[in-house]
Specification:
Spore Coat Polysaccharide Biosynthesis Protein SpsA, Chain A, 42% helix
Length: 320
């Protein structure tokens, strides 16, 4: 196994920090869990904080291992903003930080196992892959290495120059979307590079035994925990899809009267109601994480010892 004493191993953890509100407890917990579980490698947390409030900036500045990287301010928003900031952090970590590996995290995701970094690097080496990442198949993804938990080697970066949010590749992206049926999101450029160069990658699928929500509070590969709702409204892509179905059925009087007798269709809610339900679930997740995060992970995985669980990953075949 690779150890922290190997001179060529350095991990750059890249994260774009932004919170809608209540970010203090999430940031504190994320940093605590990263540091607690990453004692097996030399690492630096490279932080983009262009839109972070001052009180959160002070938390970052006062935390060991954190380096806030000054980046040009972007006026774009959402996935494109996130992706372009991550691209700059990744390049900085590899080119100026001298990192051998980079792991991206979301501002509300973190590793939950001790020695997770060396475990992943070892598995990647054994499987001869240069990218290992969360795959949020419950969100409909199947060729999107998700940035809430993505590990990449320097040779892959140097050879292919992947970007989290590619620009100027519209033709390639259109073909990629058509052939993979993958939607656009942060990380799509890494998926495109893997697909173009027919490179396999390791997928960390959702490993929850218990789900408090279909999307929030996910654990992936028994390694990464992702709240999935700390920097966004509590209405998700799938919730909006339900709204479209709801409104369509309501336009059909006979179908609508019949549908009212079907429990599953009755369960559909307008986004405002869904948001209220999601916020209630989020409050429960927050309370359990603040009280005892390890106990909550164990509950979700139905285990008494997180560190006894092996990392679970499936190798994705090369694109044809």
């Amino acid at each position: 196994m690779i150890t922290k004493n190997e001179p060529n191993l350095k991990l750059g953890i890249c994260c774009v920090y932004y919170y809608k509100s209540e970010g203090d407890w999430v940031l504190e917990l994320q940093l605590k869990e990263i540091i607690r579980n990453t004692k097996d490698v030399n690492f630096v947390i490279y932080a983009a904080a262009n839109r972070l409030k001052e009180k959160y900036l002070n938390q970052l500045k006062n935390t060991p291992h954190v380096q806030i990287v000054t980046l040009p301010y972007l006026t774009i928003r959402d996935a494109e903003e996130h992706g372009q900031y991550l691209d700059q952090l990744i390049e900085y970590a590899f080119e100026k930080g001298g990192c051998s590996h980079v792991c991206t995290l979301d501002s509300d995701s973190w590793p939950i196992k001790q020695n997770w970094a060396t475990d992943l690097i070892k598995i990647m080496s054994e499987q001869h892959v240069d990218v290992a990442a969360v795959s949020r198949e419950e969100l409909g993804d199947h060729w999107l290495p998700h940035p809430c938990g993505l590990m990449m080697t320097k040779p892959f970066f140097s050879n292919y120059k992947p970007t989290m949010w590619p620009t100027g590749q519209e033709n390639n992206l259109n073909q990629f979307y058509q052939e993979t049926q993958q939607r656009a999101d942060t990380g799509i450029g890494v998926g495109l590079s893997l697909w173009q160069h027919q490179q396999p990658w390791l997928k960390f699928n959702r490993s929850n035994k218990i789900n408090d929500h279909r999307l929030m509070a996910g654990i992936y590969g028994n390694v990464f925990f992702h709240i999935g709702a700390s920097s966004r409204p509590k209405v998700f892509h799938q919730d909006n899809a339900w709204r479209s179905v709801y409104l369509f059925i309501k336009k059909l009087p006979y179908v609508w009267r019949y549908a009212q007798n079907i429990k599953q269709l009755l369960a559909m809610r307008l986004p405002s109601k869904v948001k209220h339900q999601n916020e209630a679930v989020y409050k429960n997740i927050k309370a359990r994480l603040i009280a005892d995060p390890t106990s909550y992970y164990c509950y979700l995985l139905e285990t008494s010892d997180i560190n006894s669980l092996s990392c679970t990953a499936s190798t994705t075949a090369k694109a044809q």
